[in-house]
Amino acid sequence: QVQLVESGGGLVQPGGSLRLSCAASGFTLDYYAIGWFRQAPGREREGVSCISSSNGFTYYAHSVKGRFTISKDNSRKTVYLQMNSLAPEDTAVYYCNMGHSWGQGTQVTVSS
Description:
Distance between the termini: 40 Å
Radius of gyration: 13 Å
Strand content: over 45%
Shape: globular
Order of helices and strands: EEEEEEEEEEE
C-alpha cells in the first residue's frame, strides 16, 4: 500500500534552513509526480512545490520560488524539499502528496 512519511521539520530562526524528506513506499517513485503542500493554522492547504515523474520538471509557488528547492532520489525512494531563507510566514505543517495519498505531515515553525 502507498505510504508517504515526512520528516525533517522543526523550529528554526528566521533566515534559517531546513530540509524536509518524504520517504515513499508501496509504489515506484520513478513513475509518479510528487508534491509538497503546507497548511498554516486557520488557512487552507496550499501547494508549495512539485516534481515530475520522469524529466525532472519542477514547479514552485510564487511565495517560495528562489528559496525552496525540490529534488528526488529514486534509488532512496525519497523526495526532498530544501528550504532556505525561511520566514515566519513559512510556518505550517508540510505534507507530501502523490495522487490521493498524503503523509501525516511535519511541523515547520519559523520564529525567533
